[in-house]
């Protein structure tokens, strides 16, 4: 869902010139999206493109309603990004049809299985389930167009396929591929929040035609930019405001209110979408998630102080796993730099290799990676060892880039220091980018601050590894005391090899920009010199 409710609808089925007319209307309606940048106000745009009561397909069957909505913008009211767009759609759809089930789907995703709605209805009508508490049915995010080895770990298997199966009260909301019971958006299971307009309530029955003058006037009213002023939308009703990860925050609030959800993972993917095929686009998307997760963690709805009280231990730990995910930047940064700098100074920080305590470190390292490998391979969908290797490498890359920079950006935001605005993740690629991606070649061509700490860590590990080999040749004592640090540095070198290629060997557009390479080399040289002379 793009900012300003600019919804791209593909595969439009219409009679005669209707499809061309829709494309032209969409192009004209998209022009107000620049108002998000200029700050200008504009009224909502609502167009009924296909009316179920009038339009028929070639077999004479009624066609589903197709309504284009561009919500209004106001200078005096925040737009609340995707959550605000979804809430505008919830209100307009309530006025038009008020269907009891709502599907949210990103504009870069498509249906891949025509029986998906039937599967959902099987859950929503199952008498063996507590229907009074079932809020939504979530399908996993499955991506198309990924390269064979998924070099950027864009499938995000742990978050979209592995972790949801272990959540006691059902999965969190992924932001797409989810069927909501409309009633769940209007309060807790035992008490409904009274709305400002009765036509928006979940039990309201729409009797007027969707194109009636009364319906269209009311739809434009509820889609206006300042409609939500002094209402419960975004706080107690609809999709929740207050975080860039409105999907996580909304499901978190629903589960805290007593709702439950279901994770449906059929063999045939229900929906297929596009993932970023550019490294910088992927990192920028995750950086936005980091800022949003921090917004929840350091608010009055923190999972530590608020979530555990209402969710219980197991569900609270599930949400804490996501909320505290950005904290992985701390151990990753520490283990990527500190033991290596100590190695340059010939200072051991781990037990001697012949000592019994060294077995504990080796066991924890091998055990954690073995468990991760087994879980990854058991996740299905053609998971391979090479995909797992890329996945664990990207975990380290994230810790040194988007997790670190996103946390710093959130800290600056708390100090009222703005360093950037909301940006939509690009899923478009040029031919050269696509060719590199399909060949499994990393694209470091963007001149981004996030590549500096990553490059510094890679250079420090390379220097430390060389220093460790030199010390090992000097005597057996160095081998005994520094072996684990040498192994850790070698692990960093192996994972950082694509970055070394981008810094020193490649000449294509995917090579690391010279200014980033020089800045990283300068910082790495300072750190290594300080460690050596300390």
Automatic annotation (TrEMBL):
Record InterPro entries: Cellulose_synth, Nucleotide-diphossugar_trans
GO molecular function: cellulose synthase (UDP-forming) activity
Keywords recorded for this protein, A-Z: Cell wall biogenesis/degradation, Glycosyltransferase, Membrane, Transferase, Transmembrane, Transmembrane helix
Membrane topology reported for the UniProt record: Multi-pass membrane protein
Binding of Mn(2+), residues: 82, 106
GO cellular component, one term: membrane
Subcellular location: Endomembrane system
GO biological process: cell wall organization; cellulose biosynthetic process
TM region(s), chain numbering: 306-325, 444-466, 473-494, 514-533
Domain of life: Eukaryota
Coiled coil, from the record: none
Protein name, UniProt field: Cellulose synthase-like protein G3
